[in-house]
């Protein structure tokens, strides 16, 4: 919901808010997030990635809470629901919305099957949790995409990617043994810690000319960066993961508040 919130606040600041496409964009984003999580759970289980040494939260298939067959069925249902919800957006955005929807669905599956295994997961996060949802949501409100909105979309993508950075930082050893190449396994743990810090700072800098409110995100980001490198490894990094997720929401809410109140 964070990127949709950012896009709608930017449109609101420009004096525009159309509730129908706003609601559809929010529902589509939520369903795509659910679909991506279900696909990630199933595909990692099928590939044997979620073994006993997994450090992250428990998974449904690997824990036996749900059968692989039921998970496949759930993925199909949620994918179809996402398409049904997104289809009416053609009315506001034209037939190009079909292409956007298809790309989103493809990205949902390609992340786990391909990109996350070749150190390109971060690229997909910036694209599908920043640039695509913010630019498309804003376009459906205003029929245009401005430079400031593009900068905000990149900023949101970078801040959101801090979550993946922590996740891959925690799993760097188990991913390496599973043949999964991620950013920490290429640049090393220390450089990854600096990437985490820099991404948040750059995110705030990109929107500073629009609103100063996200500056309040920086202390939270710095505290979690220190927590991350002090913990360094193991399951305790799940605390940093949760704090990074909270930071994403905080950044979006601060941006939205700043844009709406012109701070």
Textual characterization of the structure:
With 263 residues, this protein is mainly alpha-helical. Helix content is 75%, strand content 0%. It has helices at 2-13, 19-47, 68-86, 90-93, 96-113, 121-142, 147-170, 172-177, 183-187, 189-207, 217-231, 237-261. It is globular, with a radius of gyration of 18 Å.
Q: What structural class is derived from the secondary structure elements?
A: mainly alpha
The mean pLDDT is 93
* End-to-end distance: 22 Å
- Mind describing the biggest β-sheet? none
Number of helices: 12
The strand count comes to 0
Count of all domains: 1
CATH topology: Farnesyl Diphosphate Synthase
Estimate what percentage of residues fall within beta strands.
Answer: under 5%
CATH structural architecture: Orthogonal Bundle
Low-confidence stretches: none
Helical amount: over 70%
Taken in chain order, the helices and strands follow as HHHHHHHHHHHH
Overall morphology:
globular
Please write the CATH class name.
Mainly Alpha
What is the rounded Rg? 18 Å
Which features characterize this protein?
single chain; 263 residues; mainly alpha; Farnesyl Diphosphate Synthase; 75% helix
Please describe the topology of this protein.
Layout: H1 2-13, H2 19-47, H3 68-86, H4 90-93, H5 96-113, H6 121-142, H7 147-170, H8 172-177, H9 183-187, H10 189-207, H11 217-231, H12 237-261
Helix pairs in contact: 1-6, 1-7, 1-12, 2-3, 2-5, 2-6, 5-6, 6-7, 7-10, 7-12, 10-11, 11-12
Describe the structure concisely.
The protein has helices at 2-13, 19-47, 68-86, 90-93, 96-113, 121-142, 147-170, 172-177, 183-187, 189-207, 217-231, 237-261. The chain has 263 residues and is mainly alpha-helical.
């Amino acid at each position: 919901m964070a990127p949709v919130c950012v896009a709608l606040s930017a449109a609101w600041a420009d004096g525009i808010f159309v509730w129908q496409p706003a609601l559809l964009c929010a529902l589509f984003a939520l369903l795509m997030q659910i679909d991506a999580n279900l696909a990630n759970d199933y595909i990692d289980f099928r590939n044997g990635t979620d073994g006993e040494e997994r450090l992250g939260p428990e998974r449904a298939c690997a824990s036996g809470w749900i059968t692989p067959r039921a998970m496949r069925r759930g993925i199909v249902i949620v994918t179809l629901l996402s398409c049904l919800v997104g289809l009416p957006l053609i009315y506001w955005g034209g037939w190009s919305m079909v292409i956007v929807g298809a790309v989103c669905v493809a990205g949902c599956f390609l992340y786990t099957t391909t990109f996350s295994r070749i150190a390109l997961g971060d690229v997909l996060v910036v694209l599908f949790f920043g640039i695509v949802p913010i630019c498309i949501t804003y376009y459906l409100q205003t029929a245009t995409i401005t430079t400031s909105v593009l900068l905000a979309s990149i900023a949101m993508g970078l801040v959101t990617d801090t979550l993946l950075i922590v996740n891959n930082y925690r799993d760097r050893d188990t991913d390496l043994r599973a043949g999964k190449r991620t950013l920490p396994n290429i640049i090393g743990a220390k450089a990854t810690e600096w990437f985490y810090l820099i991404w948040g700072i750059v995110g705030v800098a990109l929107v500073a000319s629009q609103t100063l409110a996200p500056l309040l995100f920086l202390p939270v980001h710095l505290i979690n960066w220190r927590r991350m490198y002090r913990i360094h490894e193991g399951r305790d990094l799940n605390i940093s993961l949760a704090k990074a997720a909270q930071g994403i929401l905080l950044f979006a809410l601060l941006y939205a508040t700043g844009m709406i109140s012109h701070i």
